[in-house]
Amino acid sequence: MQAPLRVGIAGLGRLGKRHAAALAFNTPNCKLVAACSPVEAERAYARDQLGVASIHEDLNAMLQDPHVDAVVLVTPTSLHADQAIAALKAGKHVFVEKPLALNVPDCERVLAVSEQHPDLVAMVGFVRRFDPSYLSAFQSVESGEIGRPFLVRSQTCDQNDPDGFFVNFAPTSGGIFMDCSVHDIDLARWMLGRPKALRAFATGTIALHPGLQACGDVDNGIAVVEFAGGAKAVLYASRTMAHGHETSTEIIGTEGKLLVGEHAAANRVIQSDQYGVRHAVLKDFYERFEAAFAAEMNAFVDACRGVSPLTLTLSDALEATRIGLAITRSLQSGMPEVV
Length: 339
Description:
By secondary structure, the chain is α/β, with parallel strands linked by helices. It has helices at 14-25, 40-48, 59-63, 80-89, 104-115, 132-142, 165-173, 176-192, 285-304, 314-333, and strands spanning 5-10, 30-36, 54-56, 70-73, 93-97, 122-125, 149-159, 197-205, 220-227, 232-241, 246-253, 256-260, 271-273, 276-278, 337-338.
């Protein structure tokens, strides 16, 4: 039997902690052997809560560890490209959270280095591709059940955070479309058969968080993307939902349509009483996609161990960034932008 994949993780913030715990306790055929963070509290978490023996403050030190086979990067987006390249040059498989980078040249640099190391797996975390419902919808599209798909309407809507965590994050996030809608962009290309994007238009508003104005961002945005062959994507992103997290996608074809994730229901229970008819709602993205995060990491580990290939490519991540940037430019210019 093959030995377990030995994984090191860099970044132990909100999502990084969840990835680290999954790698330490719930991901088959791998072992979390190292962790890296410039934050002492995060290093202490890895050491004391996860039992990680090899703790680093500097990523380069972890990359030089011969006992690390693969690296998971859950670091600020501005660091993704350089860190992914460093991992590949150090001979490590690499998983990097989305988006791959905040500009096309950085994405292209990662692709170029990855092509120089064909024996290494490089994967970007577009987690919705691993969600059972989205996978089922994709299989329906592929089998022709709705005819030729020509329109995708998709949204990523987060529950409002009165403290405005994302306002502080906005200057480095790339904006609402790069941070939130990049998932919907990737889903649209996936469902439509990976067409080439031609043009994008976006508009938005600040409904609750005026602090976003300083960096040209909005808390609610709408975008339209036009693809070669006539297909379209309509995207909505929001950070101000009152009730909870709501991710949904509609794929419309010539012979039918598919709808994934309507109403953000936490379960299938509908309660009716003197207050009305209602259901429990999801509070955040991780609650909605916990199973998908697990499947995503399993797929990465399996690919690194040579068990099964990846269908999600770095080129997909590059195109998502390219489209997201065109949408962001349109938001700022108020005009359609060529992708």
